[in-house]
Design goal:
A 5-stranded antiparallel beta sheet has the order 1-2-3-4-5, with no helix packed on it. By secondary structure, the protein is mainly β. A hairpin with a 5-residue loop joins strand 3 and strand 4. Helix content is about 5%, strand content about 45%. The longest helix has 6 residues. The chain has 1 helix and 5 strands; from the N terminus they run E-E-H-E-E-E. It is elongated, with a radius of gyration of 17 Å.
């Protein structure tokens, strides 16, 4: 799916107040799609909703998850996991994992 404007997700973060046994800080995030564009708008590549309405319907047919592990001394990310999905004609999902070497 190619679209000039990225979809918007509403994400809530939760930070574990304690470091784990490796001295890492864990941050989790979860949320849902929160965009005025419909599935058809995303498929057709529209950068904004094609229906202008005073009380817009928000598309919530998608999910977002993330998990970060930050170094407790430098706050540099040691690993990052991101996953987002969107229900179009069929569900589209992408997952990314990044780890420090």
């Amino acid at each position: 799916m190619e679209n000039p404007v990225e979809p918007k997700y509403e994400v809530k973060l939760k930070i574990d107040p304690l470091k784990d046994e490796h001295g890492l800080i864990r941050i989790d995030g979860a949320g849902t799609l929160n965009d005025e564009r419909s599935s058809y708008d995303f498929i057709s590549g529209a950068p904004f909703s094609m229906i202008i309405n005073d009380d817009p319907v928000v598309n919530k047919d998608g999910e977002f998850r993330m998990r970060y592990y930050l170094n407790g001394q430098t706050a540099f990310p040691e690993s990052i996991y991101l996953e987002c999905s969107m229900k179009l004609e069929e569900e589209k999902k992408i997952s990314v994992v990044v780890a420090a070497l």
